Inverse folding.
């Protein structure tokens, strides 16, 4: 399984690279499971404060779920296929969305189906000018299964999302940016560096504060404003007795750069 996703840790940033280039980095069951294991391991690794997800090879970030594997699951047991494919994929994207450390998707090529849904779930995303997106599940007679019917409308709006979901048409990184699916379009050669620089801009700040912000946004976005404000207050309260708050305030008063401990 370790060959399915390559991992490199440098300067407190873990880069995870989907590594099935001959299959356009399609997400088979083993890849999904291994990604979840890596996320669990890295959450408790104090040497890692941010993650970058990208794809190996010159063609794809990820072409989505492994259709051959999924087809075999349906043939063998349709009910089991729901668990094998849909629930597994939804668990994976939910974990990305709720992850307490910032995750940046670096989209280096094709991001179809599940690859697009991973982009939707990640906290931030930067795309190469060579990236291409699609919600092609309707072409094989199914709706998206990794959360795409829910996250894309929240990011892009109902009508724009439905156009993409109902046609299966491909769309450019510029359109993805326009819809709020990604943060930036960059040259292909500079993609990894741009993702690293974005991560480093985040690492200047308290990791505890970053986690509280991610939690407040993720939990609050689908609630009423009143409920969201309650969540915000709860996350603020969790920070008050931390050393990072004391350090941040003292550094501001002393006009110096804070040195956060993550405690």
């Amino acid at each position: 399984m370790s060959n399915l996703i390559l991992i490199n840790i440098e300067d407190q940033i873990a880069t995870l690279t989907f590594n099935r280039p001959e299959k356009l980095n399609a997400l088979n069951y083993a890849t999904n499971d291994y990604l979840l294991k890596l996320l669990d391991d890295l959450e408790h690794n104090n040497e890692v404060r941010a993650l970058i997800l990208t794809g190996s090879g010159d063609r794809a970030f990820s072409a989505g779920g492994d259709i051959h594997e999924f087809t075999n699951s349906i043939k063998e047991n349709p009910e089991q296929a729901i668990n094998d494919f849909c629930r597994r994929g939804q668990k994976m994207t939910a974990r990305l969305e709720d992850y307490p450390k910032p995750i940046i998707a670096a989209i280096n090529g094709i991001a179809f189906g599940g690859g697009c849904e991973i982009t939707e779930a990640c906290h931030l995303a930067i795309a190469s000018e060579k990236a291409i997106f699609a919600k092609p599940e309707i072409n094989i007679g199914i709706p998206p299964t990794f959360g795409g019917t829910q996250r894309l409308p929240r990011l892009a709006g109902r009508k724009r999302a439905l156009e993409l979901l109902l046609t299966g048409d491909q769309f450019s990184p510029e359109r993805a940016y326009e819809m709020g699916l990604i943060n930036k379009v960059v040259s292909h050669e500079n993609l990894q560096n741009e993702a690293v620089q974005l991560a480093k801009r985040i690492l200047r700040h308290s990791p505890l504060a970053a986690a509280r912000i991610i939690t407040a946004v993720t939990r609050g976005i689908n609630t009423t404003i009143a409920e969201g404000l309650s969540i915000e207050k709860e996350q603020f309260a969790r920070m008050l007795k931390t050393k990072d708050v004391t350090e941040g305030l003292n550094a501001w008063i002393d006009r110096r750069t804070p040195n956060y401990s993550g405690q």
